[in-house]
Amino acid sequence: MRPTAPPPSKARHLALVKSDPKANDTLHTAPTAVRLWFTEPPEMAVTRVKLVSAAGTAVAMKPVTRDTSATAPVVAAISGPVPPGSYVVSWKTTADDGHPAAGRIPFVVAR
Ligand SMILES: [Cu+2]
User: Fold this and answer.
1) Fewer beta carbons within 10 angstroms: which end of the chain, N or C?
2) Residues, beta carbon < 5 Å, ion ligand 1
3) Looking at residue 111, what is its pLDDT?
């Protein structure tokens, strides 16, 4: 069975394609970066990536970067410690058509 195509108006907007860590992943080693792949290049000047533990502690992150290639992910290197526990990545950005986009990616670092 073929999946139903999304409406064209919606398909033009920036959306998250995939992420590393993936949503609801259980990792056995602490991640050293968050990578986000989008359907179109985001406006880097307004792109923000935060990583917060279940206890509400923000993990230190380096500023977001992105290679110039069309398919390059947004990369946010993690500079703070990520001990075992539950985390949420929250990201927000704006497409070059000015439409904002945001999302949350929960994951777990297992002992
Ligand atoms: Cu749009």
Assistant:
1) N
2) 13, 95, 97, 99
3) 86
Question: What spacing in Å lies between the alpha carbon of 93 and ligand 1's midpoint?
Answer: 11
CA dihedral 3, 11, 104, 64 (to 10 degrees): 130
Q: Tell me which amino acid residue 105 is.
A: I
Q: Ligand 1 center to residue 9 CA distance, Å?
A: 8
89 vs 80: CA distance, rounded Å: 14
Distance from the CA of 21 to the center of ligand 1, in angstroms?
A: 25
Ligand 1 centroid to residue 24 C-alpha, Å: 27
- Band of pLDDT at residue 13, cut at 50, 70 and 90: confident
In the numeric block, which tokens belong to residue 87? 């985390």
Burial class of residue 106 in the structure, from the number of CB atoms within 10 Å of its CB (0-12 exposed, 13-18 middle, 19+ buried)? middle
